Automatic annotation (TrEMBL):
Gene Ontology MF term list: ATP binding; ATP hydrolysis activity
Gene3D superfamilies per record: P-loop containing nucleotide triphosphate hydrolases (3.40.50.300)
Listed InterPro entries: ABC_transporter-like_ATP-bd (IPR003439), ABCF_ATPase (IPR051309), P-loop_NTPase (IPR027417)
Signal peptide range: none
Segments forming domain ABC transporter: 9-130
Classification via Pfam families: ABC_tran (PF00005)
Record protein name field: ABC-F family ATPase
């Protein structure tokens, strides 16, 4: 145990060890959750635009969220996540599947893509090659 100090402008990511933590999410959403701030902005935007009584105050909030979304390169999030997934051997037809429907070996790859998503400044990987095939290990290296 110990502590880690990082610059407030740096983003840290780690490989999630719980292969079942994202069972109720799609593969794509699971990867994008690797950039917590971006995913939160996306969800806030979705909730705001879904409001039946969208008012002026909501419009101001929406503008702020859209600005933050653009700043975080949100417009490229799905394309970037798809590229990562394909690089790790997850075919495009599986990107919208639910995590619970993937075999264990592919869940590991999705969680690795999640850790790598958004090019974090600091990346913590504990036994990142467990459960990976040779091709994926070579790609990771």
């Amino acid at each position: 145990t110990g502590s880690i100090s990082i610059d407030p402008n740096e983003r840290m990511s780690s490989l999630n060890q719980d292969h079942f933590a994202f069972e109720d999410f799609t593969v794509m959403d699971t990867v994008i959750q690797g950039h917590k701030e971006l995913y939160q902005v996306m969800k806030e935007k979705d909730a705001l635009y879904a409001k039946p009584d969208f008012g002026d105050e909501d419009g101001v909030k929406a503008a702020e969220l859209e600005s933050k979304f653009a700043e975080l390169d949100g417009w490229n999030a799905e394309a970037d996540a798809a590229k990562l997934l394909q690089s790790l051997g997850i075919p495009e037809e599986e990107h919208q599947m639910m995590m619970k429907d993937l075999p264990e070996s592919e869940k590991v790859k999705v969680l690795l893509a999640q850790a790598l998503f958004g090019n974090p400044d600091i990346l913590l990987l504990d036994e990142p090659t467990n459960g990976l095939d040779v091709h994926t290990v070579e790609w990771l290296e």
